[in-house]
Design brief:
By secondary structure, this protein is α/β, with parallel strands linked by helices. Helix content is 51%, strand content 18%. It folds into two domains: 202 residues, Spore Coat Polysaccharide Biosynthesis Protein SpsA, Chain A (Alpha-Beta Complex), CATH 3.90.550; 98 residues, no CATH class. Strands 1, 2, 3, 4, 5, 6, 7, 8 and 9 form a nine-stranded mixed beta sheet that branches. α9 packs antiparallel against α10 and α10 packs antiparallel against α11.
Length: 311
């Protein structure tokens, strides 16, 4: 096989001892052999180190942080330690298909691009789908990747193969609590040529985020991205801001729906045990009205805050 340069695959991990070995193996078993695997252990408290040390492959490098810093800090550390001309990212619970790196590198070189991304097979609980989907691909195949990114992120970190020089120039923003991969590819796409390998080349497993746990992080990330300059034209900027605003609205609407569902369930349980239906119904209506009004107030505050940010 022709040697086209080393690929460094960076895997951040935290307390995924039971999964990370399979993930590492999927990289070491690639058809493209000129690789190194850099595992950045974000101060795991399980037996991650012990399990990784059992893997006998000179291409594997393992580092354990003394303090938990988060995945983006770990990825940036991996970038700094990478020896390869190209970099790919893997998560500790995901799987690369055997030809992923070879096919993407061929496509990157063929198109003279700086970053290539592929399709993913995404698994969430009992649901699965291919991503990007047909709707997103309409702009992608026309080369309008930045236009499509303004509608939402279409490039997950596991899908990326990128020249190291690009990541030395543009690294992950460790201050963002969410959407770090979205922010990264937006900054890259506005400056460098991107190509697309229209093949499913990785298996990705995700967990549904808890609404209450992610609420503050989502708001903080959106408002920080509102302030950033992504070198977009006026139409792209408008669509991008509309996308961020839709994230905020959906988050608030989902919370109201969750609360409504909880009280609907309680109503059913209590109604089956009590004849005092009218009193319970009045209590429910009052609570739901309260949360609905809070939703409207929050959206108004979002709008005012966005206006202030854009001044």
């Amino acid at each position: 096989m022709e040697n086209k340069g080393m690929i460094s695959v960076i895997i951040p991990t935290y307390n995924r001892a039971k999964l990370v070995v399979k993930s590492i193996r999927s990289v070491l078993d690639q058809t493209y052999k000129n690789i190194e695997v850099i595992v950045i252990d974000d101060n795991s408290s399980d037996d991650t180190r012990k399990r990784i040390k059992k893997i006998n492959d000179k291409r594997l490098r393992y580092y354990k942080l003394r303090k938990n810093h988060g995945a983006c800090y770990a990825r940036n550390m991996g970038i700094n330690k990478a020896r390869g001309e190209y970099i790919a990212f893997q998560d500790s619970d995901d799987i690369f298909y055997k030809e992923k790196l070879e096919l993407q590198l061929n496509n990157l070189i063929k198109n003279n691009s700086y970053l290539d991304f592929c399709k993913l097979h995404v698994n969430v609980d009992n649901n699965c789908w291919e991503f990007p989907g047909i709707n997103e691909e309409r702009n992608i195949v026309k080369g309008k990747i930045l236009d499509e990114l303004c509608n939402g992120n279409i490039i997950s970190t596991q899908a990326i193969l990128v020249k190291k020089a690009v990541l030395v120039d543009i690294m992950f923003d460790e201050t963002l609590p969410r959407f770090q991969d979205y922010d990264l590819v937006l900054r890259i796409a506005s400056k460098y040529k991107i190509s697309y390998t229209k093949l499913v080349l990785a298996e990705v497993y995700r967990q549904n985020d808890s609404i209450s746990a992610s609420d503050v992080k989502l708001k903080d990330a959106c408002f920080k991205m509102f302030k950033k300059k992504y070198n977009l034209n006026k139409n792209q900027q408008f669509i991008f801001e509309k996308t961020l605003f839709s994230f905020l609205i959906k988050n608030e609407r989902d919370k109201v729906t969750e609360i409504s569902d909880k009280y609907e369930k309680l109503m059913f349980e209590y109604t089956s045990l009590s004849n005092n239906y009218s009193q319970l119904q009045a209590k429910y209506d009052k609570l739901y009205e309260c949360y609905s009004n809070r939703f409207i107030i929050k959206i108004s505050r979002f709008i005012n805050r966005i206006i202030r940010l854009k001044k």
